[in-house]
Specification:
elongated, about 35% helix, about 240 residues, 8 helices
Length: about 240
Amino acid sequence: AAAYAGGGMGGGGEGGGAPARATRRRREPADGGGAGGAGGGAYDLDDDGVRAPDEVKRMRLIDAPPPGTIGGYAGPRSVAPRLMRNLKQEAQARGLGGNLASIFRPPIDIMEDTDFDNAVASANLQKKWLLVNMQDDEEFASHMLNRDTWSDDSIKEIVRGNFIFWQTFHKGAMGQRYTQFYRPTVYPLIAIIDPRTKQKVMEITGFIEPRVLAQRLADFLDGHSWSGAGVAAAAAA
């Protein structure tokens, strides 16, 4: 290892046989390096007048936003860090690997990709009931509906034949239109809207298994015709 001179020019100076660049000495900077000056200290230079490298320092940001968020807020189509851990644990427990996007993705094959008012208009035009699923991206039950209920083939068959299906997040711009009108307080929710009057005729909150929802929808269709029979009775129930 190369030896370094500890006392400047004296002592083991130039005759010690050390490599030319191994000897270091202290030298005050040329501009204001004296006592009390602005520079204040001396630089470490080698024999060629090259300044020694600064010490490497590592720093860490304090209270940085969690990964996967913008400014600490998970957007309407993403999940909060706590929920993401739950989704990963659920996927691992079921032996489904880490492809969360495919496991918990919304049922885009049966969804109406529009805002609430256009969904109402579409249902009215096609003479179908409007089926609403209002979700909260921080509630695991919302993602369970996507994974277990809306992916069920029997549910899809009922929905395609009798409903216009509209799903959104209550915190999003499109969800605000619904929440301002119907004032829901619990999420996720599933509601049936009469598109002719915008009257809510049925509502279910929380997670519901596909076989139970299929029975609830079948019972509703048995008691309600498009002519309007049964709507007033359901509203009063």
